[in-house]
Every structure is written in C-alpha cells, then in structure tokens.
Design brief:
binds flavin-adenine dinucleotide, five-stranded parallel beta sheet, alpha/beta, about 270 residues
Length: about 270
Amino acid sequence: MSFSFATVVEALQLSPRLRRISLQVENAAALAIPPGADAAVGVYFDPESPGEGRNYSVRRHAGDLIDLDVVLHASGPGTTWAANTAAGDRVGVDHARSWYRPPPGADWQLLVTDLSGLPATARILEELPRAIATVAVVEVADHHDLDYLPTRAGVTVVSSLGTGNGFGPSQLATLVRQLALPAAGYCWFAGEAAQSREVRKHLRGNGWTIDQYDVTGYWRLDSETWDAKFALVEGDVLAVYERALADGKGDKVASEEFDDALERAGL
Ligand SMILES: Cc1cc2nc3c(=O)[nH]c(=O)nc-3n(C[C@H](O)[C@H](O)[C@H](O)COP(=O)(O)OP(=O)(O)OC[C@H]3O[C@@H](n4cnc5c(N)ncnc54)[C@H](O)[C@@H]3O)c2cc1C
C-alpha cells in the first residue's frame, strides 16, 4: 500500500508564481517517500474519490510533514487547488518516487529545469552530497524565480528569463546544446516533455549511456490536444512499454522505448 490521506496545514504565497502547500501525511509509513532529492508524490484533490491527480515534488520532508511548492500557471486542477486550498482541507497522496541518481564516478552534473522542476532543483542543490561541479540550466519567468534557488559553491546557473513555461517557445534544449559535455558527466532534467525528448537525444548523440541521465517530462505543452491524439494510439504504444518490461529491460529503458513509439506515432 502506498496511499495515504493528508491534511493541509498551511498554504503560503512564496513568490508571484509559487505557492507552498504544507501537508501533514496521515500514514507516512505507507506513503514511504524515498530519500532522493527529487522525490515526488501524486496528489489527489478529492480524497473521497481519488480520480485525477497531479505530481508535485517534495520540497521539504520532516517526519509526517511535507512541503509542496506549486507553480500557478494559466489553468488546470492542480493550479486551482494550490491557489485555493486552505488549512484543514484533505487530499490523497500516493506513488512516492524519485529519479535523481548521479553515478558514483560522475564529477560534473547538469541540472536542466523550467518552473515545474524548480522545487526539486532547489532541493537537489541544498542536499548536494559531495563536491560535484554543477551547471544548472533554468528557464523561469523572472528574477523572483532565480532568487528561490539556494546559492551553493561550485554551481553555475545559466538562466533564460521569460521563455518556455507556457509564455513562449522553450530555450532549454538549445541552451543544453551550447554546453560542452564531459565524458563522465550526469544530467538530470525536469521540465516540458518535448524538451525532455530533445535533451535526451542530444545526450545520446554525444555518446552518453543511459546511466548518465535521468530525464523526466514534468508536464506537456498544450496537453489537451496531445491527450486527444494519444487516445487514438494508446493501446499500441502502451504495449511497447509493457513488452519492454516483460523482456526484463527495466523501467528506464521501457520508458525510452515508449517515448520512441510515441514519436513514431507523431506524438
Ligand atoms: C515527478 C514530477 C514532479 C513535479 N513537481 C512539480 C512541482 O514541484 N511543482 C509544480 O508546480 N509542478 C510540478 N510538476 C508538474 C505538474 O505535475 C504539472 O505541471 C501538472 O500538469 C500541473 O497540473 P494542472 O492541473 O495545474 O494543469 P493541467 O491540467 O495538467 O494542464 C492544463 C494546461 O496547463 C498546461 N500546463 C501544465 N503544467 C504547466 C506548467 N508547469 N507550466 C505551464 N503550463 C502548464 C498544460 O499544457 C495544459 O494546457 C511535477 C511533475 C512531475 C511528473
């Protein structure tokens, strides 16, 4: 079992776009949040009938208390929830997991993110386990969002203000292509899904192996149109994912084969 109910303890406006929702988790043992700095949970806004949920990174975790920092973008159930929820409200939380795993030998890492991955990026920087040279490519709205990131020695921030994030075309993949990638590096990506595909291909094209990156699409531009197209090919592309898992390829390879199948289907 990984599901738990949780109660909103506080909702706080951190910046023009970010709202911190602090939750008390009723069954922290069942939820079992992993220690990874990009740990995330699915939040189900109607605890009585957990249907549609949205994923949010665990910005802080202390005992049964967690903080989620939610970007307020144009519209969507997650944005509406974060903008309106108040102390005492209940939600369901489930599917705690994490991805950030630099290989032990990596001495250089690239963190690539837009606003959606800013909370996880902040926690990764805060919890850097060892001296590892870090380049953070961040695409945000303005300087308020850059101020949100902790300052750490050995971290170079490359920023693009006002692009991507639903404001306009994203520059994330372009900025990554402009960097020189060392052979023994690691890349963690959290941001818009089309950009995640471009970045993953670029890393592979530079000879990086699958253990050198954890690239995750956190959201999708114009997801309504994409969802309608996906519904037409869902069975076929999900079969590719299931077959890869059944062949023992593991979730990471299966996810890549799933994304390749999506691309072949024009998605
Ligand atoms: C592992 C993981 C961790 C995440 N952590 C966080 C986090 O800590 N904080 C956070 O805010 N988000 C985070 N996200 C992203 C978040 O789950 C999505 O942005 C989600 O789609 C928001 O739901 P919504 O109901 O607001 O919008 P939706 O109903 O999903 O979408 C409505 C419309 O808004 C657009 N849209 C969706 N998300 C964004 C966005 N971020 N920017 C601009 N337009 C958008 C869609 O294309 C669509 O047109 C995470 C995602 C994953 C997978």
